[in-house]
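Weekly modeling sync, notes
Attendees: S.R. (lead), two postdocs, one rotation student

Agenda item 3: backlog of single-chain predictions. S.R. asked that every request posted to the team notebook include the full sequence so nobody has to chase files. The rotation student volunteered to paste the first one in as an example of the format we agreed on. Action items at the bottom.

Example entry:
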Amino acid sequence: MKLVTIKNKFIFKPISEAQKNKYKPEQAHIYAAYKDKKSKQTRLIQMTHVIEPRKQADIKKGNLLMVKLPNVDMPSGVKREYFVKDAKGALIDLKKMEAKNIETKSGKATYVSKSLANKITDFAKKERQ
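Predicted structure, as returned to the notebook:
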């Protein structure tokens, strides 16, 4: 499982007027990317900042899992769902999505430990529609 950043325009398609008003297509988020062993699909699990009071409530309710990711300064929240399709409905393709690796100090891609990867994938069990 490696950590990447992907711009919103590749993942989200705003539907409601409220979503359209908040939508920033060039803004990027951190995702944990991995290939599912059974389906052979690339999956993305979105990470979020946990410093907002609303996110703290989600952690207490069990809707977010707080983790410390390597090469990410602040603690991150793991959402309960994962993506297998992009905004256009096609299967995830990191190259087409212009995914950028979160790099180590030596310039290599950042991978999470097997135990942390298992913890993240066990938490994010629902496919996002």
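Discussion: group reviewed the output briefly. Residues 2-127 form a domain with the Thiol Ester Dehydrase; Chain A fold (CATH 3.10.129).
Action items: rotation student to repeat for the remaining queue; S.R. to check formatting next week.
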